[in-house]
Specification:
By secondary structure, this protein is α+β, with helices and mostly antiparallel strands. The protein contains 32 helices and 11 strands. Helix 29 (about 760-775) links the parallel strand 9 (about 745-755) and strand 10 (about 780-790). Mean pLDDT is about 80; it is low at about 1-5.
């Protein structure tokens, strides 16, 4: 139960998601007949009018965005038009599946506005203005329309009922707004029932309204109502019908009134029924009225719903969008193969043969089949982001599209190929990893050499083959033609073998062609792994910059022998990284004099990675630097915390330090003491601590690691201060090495290891003695190092919540909790560390990349 209570928000979101999915399925099932009817009616509509309606729908979406824009201007806040349009599309989409529809959806998707430094109060106030204005303008249009209908004696009871409900609703909103502003009438009653909203209402009351912007909001809303009326006129003209402006206004108002009073699914069914009914009263037959209504609903509902769905998909760094092209190419490959292997529809084949010869149809089948086989392979390499793979996939999808149409007018398969082609075009910036140039050259030369050899082999073979094998006496031109044809595995009806030897001969050419093309494909998609080298001059330069600008406990490892360096312009700073696969793993921040220089180095390194087909991420970035990365569009994920002990405040007093006191007392009773060894360290001691280190590695089954820490290196340790725990026989049972820490007043250590026969608590004793030594030397703080995956309190998003869940509930990560608990005994201050990356898809690859870069 505790687990469910701690994660109740996650479970509520899951339940809400399942509810939305269920409602969506109900929605699709309920409206599947209408969806089918729309497609049938659209096929008979005039294309020019449909196109005009679609253009007006795009105008409608932009007007909705402008309405949000001016709603926020009304509360003296500016939002981008693009973000306003995106929020409208998302809210409109989700409103279909929410009770109270559009009003309920206003509580969702506020993050886009929060990122623009707008408070939640102003977001909700501006959203309320948007909703109120939308209802108000309906009344502005409806009142004269209703008056006109009364004068014409053409107002139905249902229309009057809907109008009264909306009028009461608008009146109630006006009274509530007046009560809140004046703190009169209903205000005390509202506060009594909902006491938590008092602070919100007080803050909202303090917001000054911009009347000019509010007026423009009303104007935008009126324009939206006009586009709705125009949509109805366009729908009728698209089907060749005529409808007067007065009737269009009345039918539109009726549909909107029923939409507003409909409690669920945005008036589906109710709107269609109301508009059909009112159109029949204007003299249209039931079939014609339904047809006009469905076209109108396509413009006003279905098309907007489609754009709303796409707004969730086609956003920057969307993980689904990153994977979709690979999935589509894989399924297209399967569809291509199945399409070729299954019989074609004869009527379609006959239609093709009126324009193309039979040979061309066979060639199309071959290209579709070959493209299918290669697409299955290519789809896996698309996930790696290879640029050459993208070009190949784009070409194969285009060949597939044309091939499906020319082999049997298979427009269904061609449509899938077109979708895959568009998905690749829209995600083109995701593919920048370069192929290996040397292997590309080898592949091209091999393919050309193979082609030349097979052509010679085939030409000679065909030319000298006895006529009995193919019933053809080949001339030189025919020999070259059939050699090329079989090298590319194209089957021709005019080449029929009459003997097994002829079959084997053709098979040998085709196998050689297939292997050559497959090898060419492999060499083209083989990723290029950059392998730069670092010279002594670069290392000296990096060491000098660390001495001048270093400010972190990790800066020491940025000049370790396992690192590569990237320097900013004019030597303003550098960053330290390692390459694994197609990723550049950067250790913490660049070493720079200030934030401006750091930002410059990061952007320059991004360009370097792009030019060399690499992706970058930054490991263990401190919290105070996160804003710099986020300002240039990078993503952040908390991955753990660093423990910092205040040496002046540290004490062994208190109940929380009892276990440490006991460990220290026990070590002293057993005759152990600490000894400080300053560089250069003697060879004999180095051999002793090596034995301790080897024993520790065997016992824990750990491996030496690098990148963000050091590994046992006698040459390096000889130059560092060592603190050992020994007995009177000079046996070393534990040690640590102090390393330079460039944070002001801070010191840290790298290796901390103990022998297998050391008494329990010896590491506690070692750290206490280290703290005493450092305090006596005037240091202010000791960095105890990194505790992975700790410090995630709530989790800002799904990746962080997933890490939190794994850290707390999965046994595999229990050692991380133990490390956190051990360090927490010393009462440190915990500082968050982050992973900085570009795309959520990178999170799938980063763990394996870190495993590689951690190896010495």
């Amino acid at each position: 139960m505790t687990f469910f209570k701690e994660n109740r928000k996650i479970f509520l979101k899951i339940l809400f998601g399942l509810l939305c999915i269920g409602l969506a399925l109900f929605f699709i099932r309920k409206e599947k007949t209408e969806i089918h009817d729309v497609s049938m009616i659209m096929s008979n509509a005039k294309p020019a009018w449909i196109l005009l309606g679609i253009i007006i729908s795009l105008l409608y979406i932009n007007l909705q965005g402008l309405m949000y824009f001016f709603s926020f201007r009304s509360v003296n806040k500016n939002v981008g038009l693009i973000s306003a349009i995106q929020v409208y599309l998302k809210r409109n989409f989700i409103s279909v599946f929410l009770p109270a529809g559009g009003v309920a959806s206003l509580a969702f998707f506020t993050k886009e506005f929060e990122l623009q430094n707008i408070s939640k109060t102003k977001i909700h106030f501006a959203s309320s203005i948007y909703a109120f204005t939308g209802i108000l303008t309906v009344m502005i249009i409806a009142i004269p329309a209703m008056v006109w209908a009364v004068l014409q004696n053409d107002l139905s009871a249902n229309q009057f009922f809907a109008f009264i409900i909306v009028a009461i609703f608008v009146g109630t909103l006006v009274i509530l707004f007046y009560s809140v502003i004046r703190q009169s009438m209903l205000y005390p009653f509202i506060i009594k029932i909902f006491p938590r909203v008092e602070s919100f209402l007080t803050e909202m009351r303090s917001i000054a309204m911009d009347k000019k912007s509010f007026f423009f909001t009303i104007c935008c809303s009126l324009m939206i109502e006009i586009t709705g009326i125009v949509h109805l006129l366009v729908a009728s003209h698209a089907l060749g019908f005529q409808i007067t402006l007065e009737n269009a206004v009345m039918a539109y108002i009726t549909s909107v009134l029923f939409l507003m009073i409909s409690p669920f699914l945005r008036g589906l069914g109710a709107v269609e029924l109301a508009m059909t009914y009112i159109l029949t009263r204007f003299g249209f037959s039931t079939v014609d009225a339904i047809s006009i209504t469905l076209i109108y609903r396509f413009f006003e509902f279905w098309l907007i719903l489609l754009f709303g769905g796409l707004s969730f998909l086609f956003i920057r760094n969307n993980l689904v969008l990153r994977v979709i092209p690979a999935v589509l190419t894989f399924f297209l490959g399967i569809v291509n193969i199945i399409s070729v292997l299954t019989p074609a529809i004869q009527s379609r084949v006959n239609a093709v043969l009126e324009f193309l010869p039979l040979y061309a149809v066979h060639v199309s089948n071959y290209f579709v089949l070959t493209a299918g086989l290669f697409l299955l392979v290519i789809s896996a390499f698309l996930l790696k982001g290879l640029k050459t793979t993208w070009y190949i996939a784009l070409s194969l999808t285009l060949f597939s599209l044309v091939g499906h149409l020319t082999k049997a007018i298979d427009y269904e398969e061609a449509f899938l190929a077109g979708i895959a082609f568009l998905a690749l075009v829209m995600t083109r910036h995701q593919y920048f990893v370069k192929s290996h140039p040397k292997w590309e050259q080898i592949g091209i030369l091999t393919a050309l050499a193979s082609m030349g050899a097979v052509i010679i082999y085939g030409t000679v073979g065909f030319y000298f083959l006895d006529k009995k094998y193919f019933n053809i006496d080949f001339n030189l031109l025919q020999s070259v033609k059939y050699s090329l044809q079989n090298f590319f595995m194209i089957r021709g009806d005019d080449l029929q073998t009459t003997h097994k030897f002829g079959t084997d001969f053709l098979l040998s050419i085709r196998i050689a062609g297939f292997l050559s093309l497959s090898f060419l494909l492999y060499t083209l998609v083989r990723p290029y792994v950059l392998k730069p080298k670092t010279d002594d001059a670069e290392k000296d330069k990096a060491v000098e910059l660390v001495k001048r600008f270093g400010k972190s406990g990790l800066d020491y490892f940025k000049t370790y022998q396992d690192k590569l360096y990237f320097f900013g312009e004019n030597g303003s700073g550098f960053l330290s990284f390692r390459i694994a696969g197609t990723y550049a793993a950067v250790l913490e921040n660049p070493v720079c004099p200030d934030e401006k220089a750091m930002r410059s180095v990061i952007l320059a390194f991004d360009r370097f990675c792009l030019d060399n087909g690499l992706r970058s991420f930054y490991y263990r970035v401190p919290e105070q630097s996160i804003s710099t990365y986020e300002s240039i569009g990078k993503k952040t994920l908390i991955i753990g915390q660093e423990a910092i002990i205040d040496l002046k405040m540290f004490t062994l007093d208190g109940g929380s330090k009892k276990s440490i006191r006991n460990a220290c007392n026990k070590a002293l009773e057993n005759g152990y003491f600490a000894r400080i060894h300053t560089p250069p360290v003697k060879e004999g001691l180095l051999q002793k601590i090596k034995a301790v280190s080897d024993d520790w590695l065997d016992e824990t089954e750990f491996r030496e690691m690098a990148f963000a820490q050091g590994y046992f290196d006698i040459k390096q340790l000889r130059r560092e201060t060592l603190i050992t725990i020994e007995n009177h026989e000079e046996k070393v049972v534990a040690f640590l090495n102090l390393i330079p820490d460039y944070a002001p007043g801070e010191v840290t250590f790298d290796l901390i290891r103990r022998s297998g026969d050391a008494p329990n608590g010896i590491v506690d004793f070692l750290l206490v003695e280290t703290i005493r030594y450092l305090a006596s030397r005037g240091y202010r703080s000791l960095n105890l190092g990194f505790a992975p995956m700790s410090g995630i309190e709530k989790g800002r998003d799904f990746p962080e919540k997933s890490l939190k869940f794994a850290y707390e509930k999965i046994r595999t990560f229990s050692s991380f909790k133990g490390l956190r608990d051990f360090k927490d005994k010393f009462g440190p201050e915990w500082n968050n560390s982050y992973l900085v990356y570009d795309h959520h898809y990178d999170l799938f690859n980063i763990p394996s990349i870190l495993t590689k870069v951690f190896k010495p």
